[in-house]
Design a protein that fits this description.
- This is Stage 0 sporulation regulatory protein.
- The chain is mainly α.
- The protein is built from 2 helices and no strands.
- About 90% of the residues lie in helices and about 0% in strands.
- Helix 1 (about 1-30) packs antiparallel against helix 2.
- The longest helix has 30 residues, at about 1-30.
- The relative contact order is 0.16.
- The mean pLDDT is about 95.
Length: about 55
C-alpha cells in the first residue's frame, strides 16, 4: 500500500511537470523567452523537476 501511495504521488508530480512545461512553452511562444512570466514559469518547472529527481 505504501508503494502504491508513492507511485500515485510520483504520477501526480509528473502530471504537474507536464502541465508546467506546456504553460512555459505557451508563455515563451506568446511573450518571448526573456519575459518575466516565462522565466518565472521556467523556474517553477525547475523546482518540480528537482523534486521529482529527489524522489527517485
Amino acid at each position: 500500500m505504501l508503494q502504491e501511495n508513492r507511485q500515485a504521488k510520483r504520477e501526480k508530480l509528473l502530471l504537474l511537470i507536464v502541465r508546467k512545461r506546456n504553460e512555459m512553452i505557451r508563455l515563451a511562444n506568446s511573450n518571448g523567452l526573456l519575459n518575466n512570466d516565462t522565466i518565472r514559469c521556467s523556474q517553477e518547472l525547475d523546482l518540480l523537476l528537482n523534486k521529482f529527481q529527489l524522489k527517485e
